[in-house]
Every structure is written in C-alpha cells, then in structure tokens.
From TrEMBL:
Xref: SMART domains: LytTR
Domain HTH LytTR-type: start-end pairs: 194-298
Protein name: LytTR family transcriptional regulator
InterPro entries with a match to the protein in the record: LytR-like, LytTR_DNA-bd_dom, LytTR_MHYE
Keyword Cell membrane: no
Stored Pfam families: LytTR (PF04397)
Lineage per the UniProt record: Bacteria, Pseudomonadati, Pseudomonadota, Gammaproteobacteria, Alteromonadales
Species per Swiss-Prot/TrEMBL record: Alteromonas profundi
First and last residue of the signal peptide: none
Record field: transmembrane: 21-41, 61-81, 93-116, 145-162
Swiss-Prot/TrEMBL keywords: Membrane, Transmembrane, Transmembrane helix, Two-component regulatory system
Single GO molecular function: phosphorelay response regulator activity
Length: 302
C-alpha cells in the first residue's frame, strides 16, 4: 500500500468517532435537499390547477415532515441492523426480520409525519386532512418499503466501502482457515495469518512478519517492515491472544515481537527502550520491565 493510501487510512481511523455523526448529518442533508426538489415539483403541479386552494408552504411542509420522520427513524434502524448482523442468523430469518421491521418503520414514519403536519397546520389556523386511512397508509407503505430497502442497501454499501478504505485487518474465519490450514486449533489464540481488504486488493498478513504493535483508539496498528494494518482489538486482548506468537507488551500502548529485538537499554529511572532489527525504537515502561525480562530470558530477570 502506498504511503498516501496509508495516511488516508490512518486519518479515517483517527477520526472514527466523528464518522457516525458526520454520516447522519450527510443523510439529513440529502433527505432535505431531495424533498425540497420534490416539494418544488409538487408546487409546480399544484399551480396548474386554477381551482386549487393549496398554499405554497404546504407541499414543503408535507415533504419536510416526511424527511424529518425518516431521519429520526434512521437511528433505531442502524441499531436494529447492527443487532441483527451480530446475531449471525440465517438468510431467511434475516429477510423476515427486515420485512417485519420495515412494517414497523412504515407505521412509525406515517405516525410521526402526520403528527408533525397536524401540529404545523395549527400554527396556520388550518386543518390537515390525511385522507382515507387505509388507502393513504397503503400508499405510504409502498413508498416506505422501497425507501427502507434503499436505506439498508446504502448502509451495507457504505460499510463495505468504509472497511476497504481503512484497510481493517480481520481474523480469517473457520471456513477460510480450514482451506488454508493456517489457523490455530485454539479459539483463544490469534491465527498465524490475518486477512486485510483494502480498496480492490486483499492482503494475507503473516503475524510473524509483524514487528511491533501500537494502540490507536479502538484499534491496534500492526506494523510490518513496509506497511501498517489496523486490527479492531484492544492492546490487552491482542497481547493475550498473541502471547504464543512471541509478542511481548512493553508499554501501555506498545508491544513487540520478541524474535526481532536487537537490543534493550534501561535508564536509571527504570524506563527503557527496545531497538528492533529495523532500527525502530519502542519505549519500555517500568510497569512492564520485569515481565519483559522474565519473558526474554530467566537470566535477565535476576
């Protein structure tokens, strides 16, 4: 991966906590821009009827109330999608769950939309008439089902693209591992290989090629000689599961591969520095000094 791609991926990881809010704001902006265009089109059609008593603000209120209701419902929608995906259910269950939630989504959308309109019409001293309930609901339900399908499709497309952009490493699943014969039989240990997908490429990263680890928010960055790969693990979790692979924690935010250590120096304060074979220097804190010595050699621990 080029340095420019790596810097962009790192920027995305460093600003990850802002992304949900930014995505929501972009969605709201899109909904209101799209519905503004729809309202303008509606008003054009209305003005062609010389007997219409509809005022100019009404089509905009209709469209904006729908956009606001949709935006508010996107929050529980994302929560539902994440819960459903985490359950690892089958395809039939997944489709049925979405069909049921889409119905709930439509009912809630119509209820919110009509409520917003009723309240707004009061300010203009006018009465809002939704129309025949079942006929209008079926009309809205048809549109909401299509809108729901569009929203979840957009969610998965953006999620797929986002993961490719940040180049997130992932544990090879059991099916892939059995084909490659690379994974440890123990489920509490990291496999020998990690799969990284970035843009239109896939990388198979050998854990033994990783020189050092750096904590970075919700990730740990795996540093090889020429690239960096993020893995969504905590430092504690990684060090525990990569213990048998030779990784040693030296600091709250760092760990190293014991096989690539060139030399170690300590200061009078008890802190130290690990120098790797590629001349990278990793700090050692006093908290991890004794464990590091004991792990490397019983002689050093004395």
């Amino acid at each position: 991966m080029g340095s420019r791609d790596e810097k962009f991926s790192q920027f995305l990881r460093n600003t990850e906590h802002y992304h949900p809010r930014a995505a929501f704001l972009l969605l709201v902006l899109y909904l209101f821009l799209n519905n503004t265009i729809n309202a303008a089109s509606d008003w054009t059609e209305i003005t062609r009827d010389p007997y219409s008593t509809t005022e100019m603000w009404e089509p905009y209120l209709w469209e904006y109330s729908s956009a606001l209701a949709t935006a508010l419902l996107c929050i529980p929608l994302v929560f539902f999608i994440r819960k459903l995906d985490a359950s690892s259910c089958g395809a039939k269950t997944w489709l049925l769950a979405h069909l049921l939630f889409a119905t709930v989504f439509s009912i809630a959308h119509v209820a919110l939309m009509v409520t917003f309109r009723e309240i707004s019409y009061l300010f203009f001293a006018k009465e809002y008439n939704f129309g025949p309930l079942w006929r209008e609901f079926l009309y809205e339900y048809r549109k909401d089902i299509w809108g729901y399908a569009t929203l979840i499709s957009l969610y998965y497309i953006l999620l797929f693209s986002y993961r490719r952009l940040i180049g997130e490493a992932a544990i090879i699943n059991e099916h892939q591992a059995s084909e490659l014969n690379k994974i440890s039989e123990s489920t509490t240990e990291l496999p020998a290989h990690l799969l990284v997908k970035k843009l239109n490429k896939e990388f198979l990263v050998r854990l033994c090629d990783v020189y050092w680890i750096e904590a970075s928010g919700n990730y740990v960055n795996l540093h090889t000689c020429d690239a960096t790969f993020p893995l969504r693990y905590t430092m504690k979790q990684f060090c525990e599961q990569a213990y048998t692979k030779g990784f040693i924690r030296t600091h709250r935010s760092y760990a190293v591969q014991s096989n690539v250590i060139d030399n170690i120096t300590f200061t009078d304060s008890g802190d130290g520095t690990v120098v790797l074979r590629n001349d990278i220097k990793i700090p050692i804190s006093r908290r991890y000094k004794d464990a590091l010595k004991a792990r490397l050699s019983p002689v050093m621990a004395k």
